[in-house]
Amino acid sequence: MTGRLDGKVAFITGAARGQGRSHAVRLAQEGADIIAIDLCEQIDSNPYPLATLEDLEETERLVEKLDRRIVAAKADVRERTRLREVIDAAVTELGRLDIVIANAGILPMAMGHPDPMDFVDATDVDLVGVMNTVAVALPHLPDHSSIVITGSTAAMLPGTTDNPAMGPGSAGYGWAKKTLMGYVEQMALHLAPKFIRVNCVHPTNVNTHLLHNDGLYSMFRPDLENPTRDDAEPAFTTFQAMPIPYVEPVDISNLMLFLASDEARYITGQQIRVDAGSLLKFPQGPS
Fold it and tell me: Which InterPro entries is this protein grouped with (predicted)?
């Protein structure tokens, strides 16, 4: 099946690389034009390098290669005024808005140096940033639109993001993602009369920079002083019921595509995991 999103426009945050870039490309493959934003700066509490302007330009190139239109802009989801400026201008240029994918997120971990501001940074991006994204998009969304929010399977599990060793930033990440579950249900209820669907996708470990960094390697392999990716991958594999270390960004994008399409026209208020069985394997959290 092709052309599932012909004539539609999707607004994607955190689109410079990782899951966000994958979503932009996958939706463009099915006919959507794209509005792509990313911070393209570093947040000090985040232990791994965030995306760059060059990364965002690569997303732009990949979408244009598919003969789709794209408006790519540097913007911070924490700044609602800037987001509104970007979305208003982009909708004027592209003519409409039908899909919102609130994907931007960080996992701050100041390993060994806990700072309460890490909690603030995480919640500002992962929770407030999502609400800002939805707020600026809503005035442009016609009936029968779709909003999809990125959650986290790990945040559903006790002893993962709320592990004290992970610090305030991880606690903020987990609290934000859990809070989004209720937010999604409330927004789905209030937007139902307009047939606007709101759903949350909860990935397990995904093959992106958020997973592949020294801080998370150390959390998965605390028995080693300086664990490498090769050291961590067997531990990643124990996290899922299916014997894989992580899923790929496109595995999440395929669900985003379905939820954005008219095939999901009556699916709303859902919490949908792409987790290879991790929550079933560890319903009480990993020991």
Answer: NAD(P)-bd_dom_sf (IPR036291), SDR_fam (IPR002347), SDR_subfam_1 (IPR023985)
Classified as helix, coil or strand, 47 is coil
For residue 235, the tally of other CB atoms under 10 A from its CB is: 18
Q: pLDDT by residue for the chain (287 residues), tens digit each?
A: 589 999 999 999 999 999 999 999 999 999 999 999 999 999 999 989 999 999 999 999 999 999 999 999 999 999 999 999 999 999 999 999 999 999 999 999 766 678 999 999 999 999 999 999 999 999 999 999 999 999 999 999 988 888 888 899 999 999 999 999 999 999 999 999 999 999 999 999 999 999 998 888 988 898 999 999 999 999 999 999 999 999 999 999 999 999 999 999 999 999 999 999 999 999 887 76
Query: How is residue 69 written in tokens?
Result: 């239109």
**Amino acid, res. 64:** E
Beta bridge partners of 206: 247
DSSP code of residue 194: G
Sequence letter at residue 28: A
- Give me the residue label for tokens 């954005």: 260
Residues 6+ away with beta carbon under 8 Å from 263 = 4
CA-closest candidate to residue 73, choices 139, 11, 9: 11
Q: What torsion do the CA atoms of 15, 19, 22, 24 make, to the nearest 10 degrees? A: -40
Beta strand 9-13 pairing with 197-203: unpaired
Q: What would the two tokens of residue 138 be?
A: 């809503």
- For the record, the structure tokens of 17 come out as 């690389």
Instruction: List, by residue number, the catalytic residues.
Output: 173
CA–CA separation, 24 and 36 (whole Å): 7
Q: How many of the other CB atoms lie within 10 Å of CB of 54?
A: 10
- Give, rounded to a whole angstrom, the gap between the first and last alpha carbons of the chain: 43
